[in-house]
Amino acid sequence: MIRDDIKTALTGAMKAGDRARTGALRLVQSALKNRDIELRGASAPPDDDALVTEVLQKMIKQRRESIDMYEKGGRSELARAEAAEMAVIEEFLPRQMADSEIAEAIDSIARETGAASVKDMGRVMALLRERHSGKLDMGKASAMVKARLS
Fold first, then answer.
1. What domains are there in the chain, each with its CATH number?
2. How far apart are CA 86 and CA 56, in angstroms?
């Protein structure tokens, strides 16, 4: 499980004295703990790896936005720190689908559902999320679905 891999990596980073990696992994564990607290009492909590992947992807997105803002503000040292955290977080994400694989999945779902226009985008995105969640960037996939159905 991804959560166990993160815990093991944190222990290794602490033993190695790698402060930056330790800090990033503690941030990940904190985000996971917060998400667990949010889901207390939920009727059907999601699969643990799916939950961890969702949290990690959200953290990656936040880091990308921060890097962009820091670079625009001329704060390259903070952008580098965010990029280093992002690299640590990305280690624990499942392998992401290549653009060609995403295009194949979109074509397959479009044929299956009979999607022919942008009006059908919701159905295609729902199936794409259901079948390939955690393996692709949904923002990129959304743009590809829109282009395919236009």
1. 2-90 (1.10.1510.10), 99-149 (1.10.10.410)
2. 9
- Tallying the residues shown for the chain, one arrives at 150
Q: How far apart are CA 119 and CA 63, in angstroms?
A: 32
Greatest Cα pair distance in the chain: 56
| Residue owning tokens 């564990």 | 29
Predicted structure pTM score: 0.73
Cβ–Cβ under 8 Å, residues 24 and 85: yes
> pLDDT tens digits for 122-150?
888 888 888 887 777 777 888 888 888 88
* Angle at 26 (CA atoms; ends 135, 33), nearest 5 degrees: 70
**Structure token pair of residue 40:** 């207390």
User: CA-to-CA distance for 141 and 150, rounded, in angstroms?
Assistant: 14
